[in-house]
Amino acid sequence: MNRLPAPMGLLIQRDQPLDFSFDGHPYQGLQGDSIASALLANGRFLMSRSFKYHRPRGPLSMAGQDANSLVQLPQEPNVLADAHALSNGLAVTAQNVNGTLDHDRDAYMGKFSKFMPVGFYYRSFYKPKGMWKVWEPIIRKKAGLGVLDLNFQPEYYDKAYLFTDLAVIGAGPAGLQAALTAADAGAKVLLIEQQPILGGSLTYARFDIAGTRADNLRRELLSAVQQHANIQVLTEATCNAWFTDNYLPVIQGKRLYKVRAQQCLVCSGSFDQPVIFRNNDLPGVMLTSAAQRLIKLYAVKPGKRAVVLTGNDDGYLAALDLHDQGVDVAAVVDLRHAPADQALAGALAQRKIRCLTNSTVFEALHEKGLRHVKGVDVRQITAQGQVSDKGQVIDCDLLCMSAGYMPVYQLLCQAGGKLAYEDSRAEFSLSGLPQNLNVAGSVHGRHQLDNVLADASNAAHDIALALGLSPAAARTPLRSEAQVNFNWPIFPHPKGKDFVDFDEDLQVADIVNATRIGYRDVQLVKRYSTVGMGPSQGRHSALPTARLVAWATQRNISETGVTTARPPFVAEKLAHVAGRAFDPYRQTPMHARHLQAGAKMMPAGIWQRPAYYGKAEDRDACMQAEALHVRNKVGLIDVSTLGGLDVRGPDAAELLNRMYTFAFLKQPVGRSRYALMTNEHGVVIDDGVCARLADKHFYVTATTSGVDRIYQQMLKWNAQWRLDVDVANVTAAICAVNVAGPDSRKVLEQLCSDLDLSAEGFPYLGVRQGTVAGIKARLLRVGFVGELGYEIHVAARHGLALWDALMAAGKAFDIRPFGVETQRLLRLEKGHVIISQDTDGMTHPAEIDMGWAVSRNKPFFVGRRSVDILEAQPLKRKLVGFSLPKGSVQPLEGHLVLNGPDISGNVTSCEYSASLGRIIGLAYAGIDQSTPGQCIPIRVEGGIVVQAEVVQLPFFDPTNQRQEG
Amino acid sequence: MKIMMCPLNGPRNISEFTYGGEFKPMPDPVNCSDAEWADYVFNTDNLAGVVREWWMHTPSSYWFLAERHTVTDEILRTFDPKELFTHRVDFNTPQEIAG
Amino acid sequence: MTSLKAHELLTPPCRLIDQTDLPRVGFRGAHSAEYLTARGFTLPDAPNRATAQADGSWVARLSQNEYLLLGSPADQGQRIADEEARWELDHRAHYLLPRQDSHACVLLSGTVIAQVMAKLCGVDLSFPAFKPGAVAQTAAARINVIVIHSGSVEAPAFHILWDRASKDYFDGALRDALEEFGGVGLADRA
Asked: CB distance B61–A680 less than 8 Å?
């Protein structure tokens, strides 16, 4: 292995070798290497094939910012080789390859690029109609990236909140300085860095001819940060978005931090930008910063003989780095006429490095099969984007390029920041950021190191003031600095392969053609050409695209702009978003007994309830047996999920009078009344019973799913009405059972010593307070399932004891528990509606024959006016009972009721009734179909139409003798 | 995620709140026309500007009012409904109440 | 500088004590403050504050006129149980809320409990944002909770109350959150 001597290699541990393989070849790397740096240390540049033309590609940014380094791991596709840490035994393979990476059978694709313009697939394979279905699998196979491991076992990912005064995003010189200034003022600072070490550009870039400044400054800042108690650091952590009020998702390992910061300072830096010329994608052509990262972070010599193509002074400094590390720098090719700092020209001359100004690389020359760069054709620049006819060829195996910088604006634009292009500096700047979001450093257009530090310190100064703290020092003035962006680093070649977007293999002509076809808007150019849609999300293509679109449409670049930046900033796993899932559920106090009794549980909202007792495959038999048992003997059902509200105070009756359709003012104590609720639209939204326990105390039940909403509505209305009443939601506090069946009184008699349970002493709809098995209880005579029945409501803490006492006392009467599905069948036999199952968002009382539950003898109830208006109109549909002979095809909920060619309604409930020996159900039907004896056609599964007979409700015990007895 | 100031509980994630609809006066339910009632029940102004809305802090079931700018989504003020509802409302005599 | 990367930080384990069966009760109404004061309770002077009583009971004020009384382990909550038993509905605006039945309750203590709760809850429960005696009515693990800081700055402790029907659910979420901090002692797992 070929590594540069220390102090190069900040990240690597030279004494910890790691074995790994790439496409089956064994290699050795070091602890601290990325996959890409380890491969490059082994002289392996070719890492992937491009998406469309299968061109050989090597790393471009060495910072996880490009798609060239995407590789396949055994359990994970699309891994960034330059960002993924190497580990021992790692088996890496290339992806998007037909054959092998070195000999890709699809490499010929590039030769056909002229015939495969943008939009080629859509234009060529959609006709004749239906052909896309034939072509799609073939094209998908050619175009696919990576392979999923379908045997992958999910791992534990989680989330946590993190609260801070100030979140600093990016720990380069700006981030470090800002964190220190703010922390010194007393702020609690969270410093978030994507890389494993702090320092940003200080870890790899060069800021002076001597080459000592970066390292000294980094040591100085780091030691201050490490000693500071107010600074918390997250490394290898990516802030992937900015959301309102500084809500920042930060991914570190398998955890997603939900950072909430009072203030946020983005010091995200800027992306080195490529120059566009022919074959600018060859392995061995990389961003200047990538070469510097290889040297400084990994001690990898990126080449033997280099050419540096630059649009600013940083290229000169990089040339010094290369030279210092023994790379033969064949030439610095400067797009400008001269460096800003003349001392740099002197430094190159001193080292005998050739400097060609006002020049560019027009074409990179390559080895056979485009395997690696082997030289450059350098030309004089004659006009914007144009070059002289003849140039000189310089041999090299490394070409570093840097046309300038693009601010890492993604988070800032997500926050509403606007980009404006400053022609004088050929650079985008940001404005319009929300309050409490700030920006400093090179993302803010400060590139000179002293200015970066001053800018950061000034931002932190202002932030400290905004936090109500006192910054130690005053603001520092900034100095003017040289332009870092070359204004037109684009040199189209007549033979193309001048790539604007490496991810999508897009060339200059592709972008220009898009505008010629009529897509003037950069957003449309993006969608048509797919520029910026690849994994690197326009980090290197947005700026040249903006310039090209502006040029081709004769507008300025500010007008053209760049495409919208949306979260996430880098690819994130669904596991991070899903994380540890919170899926709340509720259980009644008797839950354990249901399980012991073999209940098949079902969800009811977030409650877990027994559907019936028995195995899923025996559903029908269990349910029918339970139902017959309730009809003939006695059953017990847990109805704890029923909503419960205690309404107390002088205005308790008045509140209910206004909330429900019925009248409650004169309801006697010790009686319950059916309670139907409509909303302001007159639509039925809930029902229950109001039990008057005392003059000023009602106990109101509501549906399981509706109670929270009903409770909230009562509070909302009374915030306006100011009635003297208290409403308490006691749903979880009170649990309840319904003992139902002919023998239910006998069971209860075993347990109630202080209650007269006789038909006269405790009649139907009566309400009593007493004890059951010594437990304080509220008892309600109800008839939901159509049998003699008692609802017993007790405090949740006593629920289990109550259940056990009833089961024990009922043993002599063969009591058995029944489930929700059985209860639904029993109530269906009685024709009782379930609100929200048998009603929908349009149902008003008259449609379900509930006119009797609406009182007109009171001045107001919510929905009254709408009900009046609706009832003045002719009824359009009605809920009816229907019946089919045993053995017919059973309609399901939602099946349509037909009326000639029209749909007149739908089935809302349907089940076979063993008590009746028929299929029975409820359905909406047209008014002209709703008379008992008529037939309604129901279209069931498979489009078959069955003729059901409309039947008078209830189906069972029409005189209600059983429940009232 | 947006933060909203609850008059009872202080600044909280917007996910802790339930929207309760636009604050608008209810016309006299007995004496208004059908058209006025329908307008109240079905139509909202969808104003581009500052609107008053009902919000509830869900964990404490506390209802309050908010003044929010619908263009910037800035919440200018939140306050207890007692500020507006100072006395008991009755329906015995026709009168205008809020909703 | 502190680093959050090292999750394996050595921290003293948290203690989790289930107090669901320890008596507690709520009262609400315009006359509740007067009534409770007459019954010898010291009441917090603002909503979302809690006050320790001399006998180890706690009174938390949840709104202008709603109070939550937590029993003391010292008397197995007898004083609070008695208050619940002696209440009856009369002419006063003073209504009982069955908080022992409506809510489950645990006492979570330890130096890292704010970090534990940060895995479940969007409100900053660390010092100084959440001080002893503070109350937060909020959402944790997607259900409503009441968190009462009943400890001190040096020894933080939270009473956490939530929907009793979700006892099993939130117990699981809480124990899962505690896992990375060493979980809870075996004695507390009962």
From this structure: no
**Which long-range contacts (C-beta less than 8 Å, at least 24 apart) are formed by A938-946?**
A938/A882, A938/A891, A938/A895, A938/A896, A938/A897, A938/A898, A938/A907, A939/A895, A939/A896, A939/A898, A940/A889, A940/A890, A940/A891, A940/A892, A940/A895, A941/A889, A941/A892, A941/A895, A944/A889, A945/A898, A946/A884, A946/A888, A946/A889, A946/A891
Per-residue confidence (pLDDT) for residue B3, from 0 to 100: 97
- CA atoms within 13 A of residue A952's CA, in its CB half-sphere: 3
Number of folded domains that form chain A? 7
Pair of tokens at residue A713: 């509505």
Are C42 and C110 part of one and the same domain?
no
Do A417 and A430 meet the contact criterion of CB atoms below 8 Å apart?
yes
Q: Are residues C92 and C120 in the same domain?
A: no
ipTM topping 0.85:
yes
Question: Which of A668, A695, A729 is at the close of a domain?
Answer: A729
Q: What residues make up the domain containing B71?
A: 1-35+47-80
C-alpha to C-alpha distance for C99 and C159, rounded to whole angstroms: 14
Q: Based on the fold, state whether residues C106 and C168 are members of the same structural domain.
A: yes
Among residues A120, A71, A118, A74, the alpha carbon closest in space to that of A94 is found at A71
Within a domain: C4: no
Residue B58: give its domain's CATH number: 3.30.2270.10
Rg (CA), chain B: 15
Distance CA A97, CA A76 (A): 16
Say yes or no: C135 and C94 in one domain.
no
Residues within 8 A of A (CB atoms), B 8-27 only = 18, 20
pTM here is 0.93
Between C62, C139, C146, which is nearest B16 by CB?
A: C139
CA distance C178 to C172: 10
Residue A851 has phi, psi (to 5 degrees) of -55, -30
Residue A939 is part of which domain span? 874-965
Whether A729 and B56 lie within 8 Å, measured CB to CB = no
Q: Rounded CA gap, A631 and A70, in Å?
A: 69
Verify that C78 and C128 share a domain, yes or no: no
pLDDT 10s digits, A730-786:
999 999 999 999 999 999 999 999 999 999 999 999 999 999 999 999 999 998 999
Residues C95 and C107 in one domain: no
Domain encompassing residue C39: 24-100
- List CB contacts (< 8 A) between C139 and chain B: 13, 15-16, 58-59
In chain B, which residues have their Cβ closer than 8 Å to the Cβ of C63? Answer: 8, 60, 62
Q: How far is CA A601 from CA A591, A638, C55, C173, in A?
A: 10, 12, 44, 22
Domain tally, chain C: 2
Residues in chain B with CB shorter than 8 Å from the CB of C122 are 1, 12-13, 15-16
Nearest to B9 among C48, C122, C145 (CB): C48
Q: What is the pLDDT of residues C142-177, one digit of tens each?
A: 999 999 999 999 999 999 999 999 999 999 999 999
Q: Are A88 and A191 in a shared domain?
A: no
Residue C1 pLDDT: 60
In a domain, C2, yes or no: no
pLDDT for residue C189: 42
Segments of chain A with pLDDT less than 70: 1, 114-117, 119-127, 138-144
Judge if C45 and C60 occupy the same domain.
Answer: yes
Min distance A661 CA to chain C CA atoms (Å)? 26
Q: Which two tokens stand for residue A47?
A: 């890492």
Instruction: State the CATH number of the domain containing residue C133.
Output: 3.30.1360.120
In a domain? residue B40:
no
Domain-located, residue A339: yes
pLDDT of residue A333: 98
Q: DSSP string spanning A87-117?
A: -TTEEEB--S-SB-SSSBGGGGGGGGGGGS-
